Amino acid sequence: xxxxxxxxxxxxxxxxxxxxxxxxxxxxxxxxxxxxxxxxxxxxxxxxxxxxxxxxxxxxxxxxxxxxxxxxxxxxxxxxxxxxxxxxxxxxxxxxxxxxxxxxxxxxxxxxxxxxxxxxxxxxxxxxxxxxxxxxxxxxxxxxxxxxxxxxxxxxxxxxxxxxxxxxxxxxxxxxxxxxxxxxxxxxxxxxxxxxxxxxxxxxxx
Length: 206
Ligand SMILES: Cc1ncc(COP(=O)(O)OP(=O)(O)O)c(N)n1
Ligand SMILES: Cc1ncsc1CCOP(=O)(O)O
Ligand SMILES: [Mg+2]
Known about the structure:
- The protein contains nine helices and eight strands.
- By secondary structure, it is of the alpha/beta class.
- α4 links the parallel β4 and β5.
- InterPro entries: Aldolase_TIM, ThiamineP_synth_sf, ThiamineP_synth_TenI, TMP_synthase.
């Protein structure tokens, strides 16, 4: 699947550890409500491993493809290969993006960037988009850095006006608009969907 900036508009991320009920049901509802991309992030406490992780990933990929939205895998390059995912998202402590691009010349590749130092040391020309954050405080990621604020998006946009940016971290139906106004091409979110009883409404408002 070829990357397009508008895929970043409403980018839902989750793994089973984020869900109070079947992740398939949650993704199905979010996809029907209009998310534009999905990242499978099976990670941390209570996450699935081995065959159970692979089985869930296959089911979630099928749901994404029913709705023609990209299925992106977080961190796990081997799983992305095994499942022929549409893309992979890596951070600064994951496999170097140069290595990932060599393995996946045609997949969507996202890279997290939180500081100017990371920005200046990253090969932006080989990634499709940047994950910028955490913008606001979040309890969802165990090892999340300190919130960088909307200024980080404004700063990125000023330095690289055409670089596709998706914001992450503490984004919800109330603050999503200011994130877009700051210059992000889209918002990514976990708990805004996994902790609501009204997925349709939440996706529409996001
Ligand atoms: C869209 C998006 N942006 C940032 C991240 C964070 O990636 P990373 O820093 O590698 O942290 P983990 O998610 O792997 O814990 C992301 N996953 N997605
Ligand atoms: C994976 C990740 N990377 C930076 S913050 C974050 C967690 C985002 O979760 P939430 O949308 O619930 O704050
Ligand atoms: Mg990572």
